[in-house]
Write a structure and sequence with these properties.
By secondary structure, the protein is an alpha+beta fold. It contains 11 helices and 8 strands. The protein has helices spanning about 5-15, 25-35, 55-65, 75-90, 95-105, 220-235, 245-255, 260-290, 295-320, 345-350, 360-375, and strands at about 110-115, 130-135, 135-145, 155-160, 170-175, 185-190, 195-210, 210-215. It has a 4-stranded mixed β-sheet. A hairpin with an 8-residue loop joins β6 and β7. α1 packs parallel to α3 (about 55-65), α2 (about 25-35) packs antiparallel against α5 (about 95-105) and α4 (about 75-90) runs antiparallel to α6.
């Protein structure tokens, strides 16, 4: 049984064989993956050692102390937080060995082809079609709000494979090569001026059946693994005290006493406490993950994340007065990641408006918490047993 002491020994052996100061970062990350120190709770041979998730902190502490490179998780967050756990749970052995290593080391960026113009909040109503053609599938449709599509090599994709079944039953789940013919990525310029999101058009895109995850028609079940992990990765990120959005506001309060008022003080104290409660709740959620898969509790964390970000960024703009109305740069860019704390107050205020939409709208998440966490009666739905092709659109 691998314990903390043995993990420290393995990590130090990795550092001795591949000194961070003289080893190329990518080579170091590949060696770390092969040593089973990437995500220690994953199986042997897939970047892990089949040990409890909690022991990852032992490895991370040793590597941080030695100045070892990380895999830039913000840039590859969709792959790490959403694609990887889905591939691990539903992928074939061949799929796991093909995709997990380049995903974790950051060689291949992933994106998520789920939402559509007519199926955002009601994701199961999606209309992108996948039609069987020999040993593969031909996909036609449109996806929207796709983060990192302009950078991605691979995408996790859900498409309708049987329109004659009710909407949740006729969906299958695929891995799509974003470099294939028929995949067109167009930028969506946001209120921030940037085009972090994209819309993706799929026209006659051929996907081999070997790139299907799960059984035909079970795509909705597979997608639930992705979505539960997505909400945990968005709302349950590990941050220090006064990390995240509350940090810049607290620093401005301390550094600029001339901006203070009694009302702002009371609001800041309230939001500071709520941010700390959310942070500690996130720690608790991550501890629960050690024992199993993420559940609907992640939806509650994501709800809190969105509300707090919007309220805190609004308070910051108000606190800064005229300075809060300034916006540094409206240049049209296609960034590699979202950087809330490294930008100005105007960016935080504008970008946080999307937090209640991305990763599941707050309205949908409220339903999930009500039904799956609190056990309240489900809302009446008259379309659950109707074939998708017969639904009004």
């Amino acid at each position: 049984m691998t314990d903390a002491a043995e993990l420290r020994t393995r990590t130090r052996e990795l550092l001795a064989a591949h000194p961070p100061a003289t080893t190329e970062p990518l080579d170091f990350l590949k060696a770390r993956f092969d040593a089973g120190l990437a995500w220690v709770h994953y199986p042997v041979g897939l970047g892990g050692l089949d040990v409890p998730r909690s022991l990852q902190a032992v490895v991370d502490a040793e590597l941080a102390a030695a100045g070892a490179p990380d895999n830039d998780p913000r840039r590859i967050g969709i792959g790490l937080g959403m694609a990887a756990p889905t591939v691990l749970k539903y992928g074939t052995e061949e799929q796991k060995r093909r995709f997990l290593r380049p995903l974790w080391v950051g060689e291949e960026v992933w994106c998520q082809l789920f939402s559509e113009p007519g199926a955002g909040s009601d994701l199961a109503a999606l209309g992108t079609r996948a039609v069987r053609d020999g040993d593969g599938w031909v996909v036609d449709g449109q996806k929207v709000w796709t983060s990192s599509a302009h950078l991605a090599r691979w995408a996790i994709l859900i498409a309708r494979t049987d329109p004659g079944l009710p909407k949740h039953q006729g969906i299958s789940y695929f891995i799509c090569d974003m470099t294939d013919p028929g995949v067109e990525v167009r930028p969506l310029r946001q209120i921030t001026g940037e085009a972090e999101f994209n819309e993706v058009f799929l026209t006659g895109v051929r996907i081999p059946d070997a790139h299907r995850l799960g059984e035909i028609g079970e795509g909705w079940k597979v997608a639930q693994t992705t979505l539960m992990n997505e909400r945990v990765s968005i709302g349950g990120m590990r941050i220090p005290r006064e990390g995240g959005m509350i940090g810049p506001v607290a620093r401005a309060w301390r550094d600029r006493p001339e901006l203070r008022t009694h009302d702002l003080h009371q609001r800041l104290l309230t939001l500071w406490v709520e941010a700390e409660v959310a942070r500690l709740t996130g720690e608790r959620l991550r501890q629960q993950l050690v024992a199993g898969q993420p559940g609907p509790e992640g939806s509650g964390m994501k709800l809190a994340f969105a509300r707090l970000n919007q309220e805190i960024s609004g308070l910051e703009v108000e606190l800064l007065g005229q300075d809060g109305l300034l916006y540094s740069d409206w240049t049209m860019r296609r960034p590699e990641l979202v950087d809330f704390t490294g930008r100005d107050a105007g960016y935080r205020y504008l970008r946080s408006k999307g937090n209640s939409i991305e990763g599941g709208t707050s309205e949908v998440l409220l339903n999930i918490v009500a039904e799956r966490v609190l056990g309240l009666p489900a809302e009446p739905r008259n379309d659950k047993d109707v074939a998708w092709k017969d639904l009004a659109r």
